[in-house]
Structures are given as C-alpha cells and as structure tokens.
Amino acid sequence: MPDISIDAIGGGSFTGYLSLPKANRGPGVVVIQEVFGVNQVMREISDEIAALGYVALCPDLFWRQEPGIQITDKSEAEWKKAFQLFGGFDVDKGVSDLVSTMNHLRSRPECTGKVGTVGYCLGGKLAYLMATRSDADCSVSFYGVGLDALVDEAKSITRPLLMHIAEKDKFVPPEAQAKVKAALAGHPQVTVHSYPGVDHAFARIGGEHFDRAAADLANERTRTFFKTHLG
C-alpha cells in the first residue's frame, strides 16, 4: 500500500502508510506508532487491521524532527536513536497530527465516517490522549507510557477506551500502573485489562518480550472492541 500525504493543522504536511480492506471501504483506524517510526512492524499491523475490514492509516509522527524514520528494536544504535526521537517529541503537536490524520481518514471516500485509534508504547500514550482530547469514536492503548502523569484528563473521556497494561512493564513501574488503574476504576467509558508476567511490548511480534498468549488475548479483545464500536 502507498504512503500518502496528510495536511497538518497550522501548515505543513506529513506522510502516512495507508492500508485498504479487500472491499475497499470500511470504518477507519488510525494506527499510532511506537518509538521506531512507521517501520515494518507498524505497516504489518496496519495491514492486519485492514484485513479485518478497516481503512488503516499510520501517520509519521516524527516528521517534525526527522521525516521517514523506520528503525527496529534490534540494535543499541537504533534504541539510542529511538530514545532521542522520543525525548524530542512534542506530545501536543503529536495529538494535533493525529487529529489531522483522523480528519483525513473521515474525508476519504473509502471510509464510512467512523474512526477509531490504536497505539503502542508512545502510541499507547497518544491513543489515551485521543480519547481525552479528540472525538475519535473509540481508542485502544497498548502499554502506554507516562499515563500516570495524565490521569487528570480522564474526566474528558466521553467515548470508549480500551487499555492493555503489561504488569512487568519496565517503562511503567507498579506504582504508576496502580495510579492509572485507580484513576480509571469505575469510569463508564474505560475498560482496563492487565496482563500478569509480561513486559513492555508483549504484542510486538519478533520483539524481545513478545508473549504469544498475551498478544493473542489482547488482539482478540481489540478486534471485538472495534467490531462493537466501529462496526
């Protein structure tokens, strides 16, 4: 599938990887990248989502720093680069770019109009923020980082949010997880699933901490969630 151009709010443009369903029409899903850019992993995830009948679009959120980043988790140099990009990332502008992506999807003839989001790692944080700051129809957060500092925004969630938390997440200590769970407990729009014994990025196929059983369960829950809220 091709990379397309998306107009940014406030000027400029960036690219996104578009993957279409077999029927060439369906609800939209914004796929939100990890810290490694719109790499092969994110493209394959987008293709898998498209195969389920959705119009999947994964935007390049690092374009303001360095467009076209596609690195892996396989070398120390790439990890160093990833953390450099993460450190220089402007979260507010990232959310703005995701809103631009969502609006682009909704305007495409292939899209029925409903659009959800799903994000991993950094993308998991941003999926949570799309639930608090945008009118996305639903959102899914996989092992989002830094959410404990954002729990006050939970009061702004008005549409369904599904969260997958890795209990052994090396980037999210137990006290941070507890704060997030406590803040979201009982929220009518939020469903939180916690996965014991697994580390960050347990759903990344080929990753160091990939856990087949946990990944399959989280992905099945995500598929059901999207079917329920997007159709």
TrEMBL record:
Membrane-crossing residue ranges in chain numbering: none
Superkingdom of the source species: Bacteria
Domain Dienelactone hydrolase: 14-229
GO molecular-function term, one example from the UniProt record: hydrolase activity
Cross-referenced PANTHER family: ALPHA_BETA-HYDROLASES SUPERFAMILY PROTEIN (PTHR46623:SF6), CARBOXYMETHYLENEBUTENOLIDASE-RELATED (PTHR46623)
Name the record gives this protein: Carboxymethylenebutenolidase
Organism: Stella humosa
